[in-house]
Design goal:
Layout lengths: L1 E6 L4 E7 L6 H7 L8 E6 L3 H14 L4 E6 L8 H13 L8 E5 L1 H13 L6 E5 L4 H4 L4 E6 L2 E8 L4 E5 L8 H18 L1 H9 L1 H5 L3 H21 L14 H11 L6 H18 L4 H13 L12 H10 L3 E2 L2 E2 L1 E6 L2 E5 L4 H17 L1
Parallel strand pairs: 2-9, 3-4, 3-5, 5-6, 6-9
Antiparallel strand pairs: 1-2, 7-8, 10-11, 12-13
The structure holds nicotinamide-adenine-dinucleotide (NAD), the ligand O=C(O)C(=O)C[C@@H](O)[C@H](O)[C@H](O)COP(=O)(O)O and zinc ion.
Length: 367
């Protein structure tokens, strides 16, 4: 078991990464002083519930906690105000009080949704992340919680940090292959923004990661969490540095919104976005090898790097303008400088984006 720390100055919280952690949930709750006198709300989805809910409930019960469970439909569509209201209803009907904890047991969808409930219920109650996807090594750390609006991703949300992250990596063995690939996109992102050596390691261990080799996966997720924790610890509310975690997201979020939530998985959309960001850098003078290396790593994980023909250029641009990264009339892009290094750029012109959308569509015609 490894423990990392997110250090926010006034407070800090741990990320526990290891096997068998869900069946020790109750002990961790007690150790972190979470109240056993108030009911705990476990939010999960209908894929995760049959796999992992029982052990969490059992462990909490043994430690003296009573639980209320809300199971939401699996998938991105559950990051909505409607489902948010359903979870709130479960919290009120379940008698949660200000000392109650909300647990997110699942992937990034459940984490973002339950986190926003925790931030809002009675203006904020304790929150615990129990991630069960590879992608959630990213989403469970750092306190960004949100639901989507029809027009834009993560539009309604808050910064709300958990009490702890309990990452039981044993759960990952049941992930469908497409989710494994999509989750690894954020692992690769962490390498591309911060650590050239880790990016090379990911390339060299692609097969082990795709095969869910516990040792390789444990290393990659610890490294990914470490990079994320480090960045968030330096800039919790995205006043500067934290924006680098958005590599690939300017275009990626637009793809998710215009295609209809869930059509492209988050990891798939940001993979295309990372290819686009590298190509913008190349069009601005970087060596073409930057784009080629980036896309070859992503393709190695079976991730998409071309722009699907059916995605309308004007709609992508329109959706980008609704994103949080469009501010003061400027589009903020994270552009790679070299593998492992990025810069935050706010002078990317819409014409440059149109150009890469077309170029990435043309790439598709050659495959
Ligand atoms: N808050 C953040 O900082 C942050 C960071 C990255 C991504 N996100 C958000 O995270 C979301 C994507 O997260 P995700 O990819 O985990 O999606 P997800 O939560 O939809 O999970 C993916 C799928 O895997 C299933 N699943 C989950 N755990 C499983 C397991 N152990 N075994 C079998 N199936 C399992 C789920 O039911 C779902 O169908 C997006 O909404 C994205 O915007 C947020
Ligand atoms: O934690 C962050 O900061 C990130 O940007 C991580 C991203 O992977 C994640 O998808 C995040 O939800 C995007 O944030 P947003 O502010 O662009 O909605
Ligand atoms: Zn992301």
């Amino acid at each position: 078991m490894r423990t990392l720390q997110v250090d926010l100055g006034e407070r800090s919280y741990p990320i526990y990464i290891g096997g068998g952690l869900l069946s020790q949930a109750g002990d961790y709750f007690a150790r972190h002083g979470l109240s056993a006198k108030s009911p705990v709300l476990i939010v999960t989805d209908d894929n995760v519930a049959p796999l992992h809910l029982k052990q969490v409930e059992e462990s909490l019960r043994q430690a003296g906690y009573s639980t209320v469970v809300k199971i939401v439909p699996a998938g991105e569509k559950s990051k909505s105000l409607d489902v948010f209201e359903d979870v709130m209803t479960a919290a009120i009907e379940g008698g949660l009080d200000r000392k109650s904890a909300v647990v997110a047991l699942g992937g990034g969808v459940v984490g973002d949704l339950a986190g926003f409930v925790a931030a809002s219920y009675m203006r904020g109650v304790p929150f615990v992340q129990m991630p069960t996807t590879i992608l959630a090594h990213d989403s469970s750390v750092g306190g960004k919680v949100a639901v989507n609006h029809r027009l834009a991703k993560n539009m309604i949300g808050a910064f709300y940090q958990p009490e702890m992250v309990l990452y039981d990596v044993d759960t990952l063995q049941t992930l469908p292959e497409r989710e494994v690939r999509a989750g690894l996109a954020e692992v690769v992102k962490h390498g591309l923004i911060w650590d050239e050596a880790f990016t090379s390691w990911c390339r060299e261990h692609t097969a082990e990661l795709l095969a869910l080799d516990p040792e390789a996966l444990g290393y990659a997720l610890t490294k990914g969490c470490e990079i994320k924790a480090h960045v968030v610890s330096r800039d919790e509310r995205e006043n500067g540095l934290r924006a680098i975690l958005n590599l690939g997201h300017t275009i990626g979020h637009a793809i998710e919104a215009i295609a209809g939530y869930g059509e492209y998985l988050h990891g798939e959309a940001i993979s295309i976005g990372m290819a686009a960001a590298a190509l913008i850098s190349v069009n601005r003078g970087a060596d073409r090898s930057l784009y080629e290396e980036t896309t070859s790593i992503l393709r190695g994980f079976g991730l998409p790097t071309i722009m699907p023909e059916q995605l309308d250029e004007d709609k992508i641009i329109g959706a980008m303008m609704h994103d949080k990264k469009f501010k003061e009339q400027q589009l903020v892009f994270i552009l790679p400088k070299s593998i492992g290094k990025v810069e935050i750029v706010s002078d990317v012109k819409v014409e440059e984006v149109r150009r890469v959308i077309r170029e990435l569509k043309e790439e598709g015609q050659h495959v």
